[in-house]
Specification:
Blueprint: E1 2-9, E2 13-21, E3 28-38, H1 45-62, E4 69-74, E5 78-79, E6 84-85, H2 101-106, E7 116-120, H3 121-132, E8 140-146, E9 150-156, E10 159-161, E11 163-164, E12 167-168, E13 176-177, E14 180-181, H4 182-185, H5 188-195, H6 202-205, H7 212-232, E15 237-241, H8 248-259, E16 264-266, H9 272-282
Parallel strand pairs: 1-4, 4-7, 8-15, 15-16
Antiparallel strand pairs: 1-2, 2-3, 5-6, 8-9, 9-10, 11-12, 13-14
Helix pairs in contact: 3-9, 7-8
Length: 286
């Protein structure tokens, strides 16, 4: 087995972990989930880069053997080959727009020669669930992650499909809904805005009976958005992940009703899913 250090970078926090990967098979070994640190995604480039570098040093230190590389799952739009964040107008990471992150991070970390592979966070989550989790039975799986934003990944038997016709799957979150852009209104942040709480405080109120109608309605809106998308993409299964999946029992029924005949299930792997997917995408089996 070989070890891959992984960062799952979100708008609120950077999650860390180490994945044992079998370079010769479809499988993966144990996932060790490490600590999370704040991303501070709305602050200056120096602060954002400093948080990323700190997280890298943390995750490399927690590995029991020298990692073969570092996989970083980053929100899109993102230039994977160039290692450049291309996010604008999404309330995060604008200070590092267009910067080549590999050399900037190498200059700040304790292991500057560590190979770095970037992947899109949506695809890391999608591949993790499609290969190892809720979508492992195969077929065309649309994985939707509900966090600070809305991220989507389409896979076919575990292989990422980036475009269908004119639709770039990564840009699905930019589509309009009757209530606003999907990324803004259907994410966990969108629900937090409706409940008039900070996204970080959503978990403290989401189980209260007084907010139940709004939470159910959030599921309905999400299902009505996804129903034509699932038809357009010829989807066999919808998997819902991200931070909001912890409350799936409170909005999942309304989501399924609005989605119609397409099966919809919560993600199974939790924080381990994106870590597994990122490791597999950045350092694929031989």
């Amino acid at each position: 087995m070989a070890m891959v250090a992984v960062l799952d970078v979100g708008g609120t926090s950077i999650k860390t972990g180490v994945v044992d990967v079998d370079q010769g098979s479809r499988g993966a070994g144990a996932v060790t989930i490490g600590p999370s640190i704040p991303t501070r995604a709305t602050e200056t480039a120096d602060i954002v880069l400093g948080q990323l570098a700190t997280a890298i040093d943390i995750v490399v230190a927690q590995a029991s053997a020298a990692p073969i590389g570092l996989a970083i799952a980053f929100p899109g739009p993102f230039d994977v080959a160039g290692g450049r964040a291309l996010i604008r107008g999404l309330h995060k990471f604008e200070s590092i727009y267009g910067l080549e992150l590999r050399p900037l991070l190498a200059a700040r970390i304790n292991h500057p020669d560590l190979p770095i592979g970037f992947v899109r966070d949506s695809e890391a989550a999608g591949v993790g669930e499609a290969v190892f989790g809720a979508g492992r039975d195969g077929g065309r799986v649309l994985t939707v992650a509900l966090g600070t934003g809305l991220a989507a990944c389409l896979t076919d038997d575990g292989v990422v499909i980036e475009t269908v016709g004119a639709l770039e799957i990564e840009k699905l979150a930019q589509r309009s809904t009757p209530d606003g852009r999907a990324d803004d209104v259907l994410s966990a942040r969108g629900l937090a805005d409706r409940l008039e709480v900070a996204t970080a405080d959503l978990r403290t109120v989401i189980d209260e009976d007084r907010v139940a109608p709004i939470v159910r309605d959030h599921g309905r809106r999400l299902g009505e958005f996804l129903a034509p998308v699932a038809d357009e993409l010829t989807v066999d299964l919808v998997v819902v992940g991200g931070g909001l999946v912890a409350a799936f029992d409170r909005f999942g029924g309304a989501l399924r009703d609005a989605l119609g005949p397409i099966p919809c299930v919560p993600a199974e792997l939790g924080a381990a899913g994106p870590l597994l997917g990122a490791a597999r995408l950045a350092f694929p089996p031989n």
